[in-house]
Structures are given as C-alpha cells and as structure tokens.
Amino acid sequence: MKSPIAVTDGNASHAIKTRRLGDVKTTPAFLLALALAACSTGGLKGISANAPRPPYAQSRLIDSMTWDFSTITTHRQAHGSDLWPCAWAVNGDLYCAWGDGGGFDGNDDNVGRVSLGFARVSGTPRGSDPSSVIGKNIWGAPPFAESAASFGGKVGSLVSVNGVLYAHGGFWTSNDTPDPVHKGGRGPHNSIAWSADSGKSWQVAAWSSPEPLGTFLDGGQDSGSAAPPVIYIYYLKSGDSRHLYLKRVSAARLTADPSTGADCQYFNGSSWWGRQARWSTRQRDAIPVFADANNVQGPTVSFDRGLGRYLLTVGHYASGNDDVSSAGQVGLFEAAHPWGPWSTIAYYENWGGGDMNAETRGDFLSLRLPSKWFSDDGTAFWAVFSGLNSYDSFNVVRGVLHLR
Asked: For the whole model, what pTM was predicted?
C-alpha cells in the first residue's frame, strides 16, 4: 500500500490516512489506542457513537484514501469567488463558473466583480508548482474578462457536449432586475444557459422551472464524445433533502422545457446489482439512486475512467439545518454504474481538519472532481472546492485512492 500523503493541519504537518472507520483519521499511535479501547469498550461500535454514520457499506474495491491539503494555501486563486462547477471541453481546457466576485483576474471587493462569471482553466495541478494551473476570465467584467457579462445569478453545474457548454443555474435577467450583471445571489429564473463559442457568449432559455434542475454527470472530455450522447442529471425533489434521483436526456433536447415531460427519462430501478437500469417517461415513477438520513447536499458525480467507477461526492448535515452545514461535512462513494448501488469510500465530519468546519460553517458548496484531473490509472485525482471566508476562492486538493 502506498504511503500516506503529508497533510498540513494548522501549524502541524503530519500524515493522515482515512480508513474504514467513517470519519476517524488513523495514525499508528491512534491505532494502538484504538486497539486498547476496543478491549474495554467491546469493539469499534463504541467509537464516535454520536457521529453520523455513512449510509452505505465500505467499498470492497477501495480500502482507504489520503488527502494532501497543503496546496489549499499555496495554490489558492480567485479570492472572493466561489462555487466553481467545471466542464472538460472539447479543446482540452476546463471551463468553470464562479459567483459574486472578480474571478481569476479581479478580486472580491471591487475589481472585476460580477454576480456570475465564466473562466477558462488550463493545465493540471502539481503539488510543487502553484503556476501549474492558469485561470483566465472569459465572460465577466471587461477589461478583467474577454467578453462582457449580460446576465447574472448562480450556476451549480456545467457540462460540455458536442463542443457546446451547458450550465444549470438560477439566473438574473433584465426581466427581473435593472442590473442583472451585478445582482447578487441566486436568481429567480431557474433554467439552462449555453455557449457554442467556448464561453465567450451565452444564451438563456426562455422557460423557468419551479423544480431544481440538478447536476450533470461529468462523463469525461466533451461528455466522453458519446454518439449519440445521453446526458445524466442527478436531482433533488423539492421538500425532500434525503434522496437523490437520476434522469437522462438526449443532448439535442437539453435546452427544452422540462415541464413538458416528454424529453426526460427517469430512473425506475435496476436488475440485480445494478447491471441493467429501467427508465420511465413519468417523473412520478422515479425512485432514488442514493439516500442518506443525514440529508443530501451539493451532489456531484464524475466518471473515473481508470477505475471504471463513478465517484459521488455529497455533503451531509444531520441536523437538517442548512445553516450549520460546512465544507468539512462530506462523503465520497463509488459505484460501477451511474445509478449505483453505492459503496462508501469515506464519510467525514471534519474533512480538511483544522478550522475548516468553523470557517465554512453556514454553507456547503460541493466538492468537485473534474474528470480531466484523474490519473491514468484512476487512483489519484485533484478536487476543487470553495466555502466561506478564506475558502471563498478557487481551492485545489489532491486525493489518492488505495485499492484493496
């Protein structure tokens, strides 16, 4: 098994390995103490009894994983801008969206600030080289972006299909406010926007949905160049924060009004161990593909081509109060199919350690695994995340999966 990665936590540099103990981070000293404790408490069942438990059994493929958090400070960019959903485009770059800030070429206070912007991100992170990733504002506030923004809001998910970028979000348009470009927060126009020129110009669909639109599956560069492409979208139902659902739609119908119902197929179950999925054109037939009694927040799913597995990241907050969620409350799961069944890789209550939970308390903005940044064998990747305060920025960390 590979050695743990060095992790910086506050002023101490140490190795942290996440093993099959939920959110317990083990070191040799801790393992000895754990063994002694097990003798007197009756085993592992008594450890962290009050901590939320993962909803699925431990993965039989992935034994453990390690993280390198030292790059959070050394590689941090775009201070004051958050969210950062990304899509691996046909030209080889990532295209990412930010909210309420100046992106890579401005700052949060007054330089280039817009409600919504899009950036091109070139390169792949390297731990020893903060300049290995270069971000450039494509659509925002000139001269700090190549093209001028024409609307605002928030984008939660991006996908590239056949050279076109698509974005799900809540938008501000001129029909909603006199200054949509600078109107903060998520807009009321819940719809899809698209760009056929690598993010230089965007068009917003005329319809607005009362239901959350969901998160695109990151299937690889330009959605894996599937022909004909079928796009998977994970979504939550209004009033239900414990179940995640899945639908699929042809790329040609991505911009169609979902209220018509005829363009989507909803996951309706599968054969033994998920080998064959069933689909229905009626949303009422949809059944969950993932469930967590500790609630579901900000799900993202990426295809790890090297392992042939789908990796799901999802936040949780056992209290059910979104105001106490944080970047540190996150779980990682894997499955052989987009619809599961899922197995737990890790389930954290304080991912990142240190002051992560305290500083980001009040919101979970997703932990994103761009498919471009997976290693060839699929056992290592770079993740992007953001949060409140100093984490209100473009942050990257490296994860390593240790196979059984």
From this structure: 0.87
